[in-house]
Task: structure prediction
Amino acid sequence: MKYKILFTLLAGWISDSQGQDHFSLRQSIDYTLKHHPSQTVYTNNIGIAEANSVQTMAGYLPQVSGSATFTDNLKLQTNVLPAGIFGPEPEEIQLGTKYNSNLGIDVSQTLYDPGKIAGIRGNKPYIAISRLQQEQNEEDIAYNTANAYFQVLIYEEQIAIQTANKIKYEEMVKTLQYQFEKGTVLEKDVDRVRVNLNAANYQLEDAKTRHHLAINTLKNAMGLPIDANLAIIDSINYEQFAERNEDDAFELGALTEVKIGEKSIELQQVNLLTKQAGYLPSVSFFSKIAAQSLANDFSDAFSSWKSFSYVGLSVSVPIFSGFRRQSQVKEERLKLENEKHNLQIREQSYNLRFENAKTSVGTAYGNYQSNKDNMALALKLRKVTEYQYQRGVATLTDFLNDDTAYKSAQSNYINSLYNLIVSQLEFQKSRGNLFPFLNSLQ
Result:
């Protein structure tokens, strides 16, 4: 850009004096991907998915538990034996011992459980969705950072332009004031230039305010503290945005959103299988190794141990659950159908988004080229008028009119350039090519 060197020198001196950190576009995006708070959330979500995967697998691994109990029967239960067993009268007896101690280890192993098997199959798509969501978040925060970064650059360019205009008008006011005092020009000529100077001062302050707000927006997009010092490096070749990219192929499968939708359908299919497995039997193995000590004296409560053990198989066969399983299967089947329809609806919106972005970038490119040519033409006219004014052929009014037209052309050019940048970013994001495009910028 024309005023880049002027503003870079000025901004460099200011930022160095304030100890600011300088970021290029790539450095800004790298910082965002490493430090934005949302990254921690999505990383934790992946950890949660992996932890749930381990928990699901644990249901199909051996379950081992140990137990130890000690019971002091303060008063044993009294039972009455009917008459005729030990005599003609009913007999009261107390069965058991005062102190009971037990030590044991229980082992169980699921041999076949279709519900748990289906749950294990769901681990893969669940983890995949969490990772894809992190990728989508990276795309979003990188896009926001790039957008905010270029917004800052645009305002820096506007500051540079208004600074140059201010300097130019200050010199003209000084010259015309001297000529007015000598009686060679009218006071209204001085006032006309001073009006333009005041307008340049206002536009400069407005651009500085907007630049400050844009810097804060960039800090927020990067995950920088709002009170941190930040300066950016204008090292982008803007002509890259104006290059017509003939490779505008669009593949739905390349979009992260579509990949998430496909994995969501896969996960819902697993949920359906899990509910359908509720109709099938499950088989488990169980065993116990234990020892028991029975005594009426506390001194013998832990001395006389008798061991025992057992093994067995458990078969659970679902028979009737009050139509609960049937309702659950129907619910999950409808959810699966909705997932498929929702993905189709979203795919249509993604196609529409791409077509709109493609149209917008084409329109923005046309406006950019038109405003670029118009700015060059306005500059040419202003140079001619300025040359004529300096030699007394053209009036001050002619020069100021052409100068105003050139400033308007500059403003239109800057705005069209920013619109082109944003449209190009949106276009590349809509086709799933944001990161390769950002990496290609030099």
Remarks:
- The chain is about 65% helix and 15% strand.
- The chain has two domains: 4-60+113-280+324-440, 63-111+282-316.
- The radius of gyration is 40 Å.
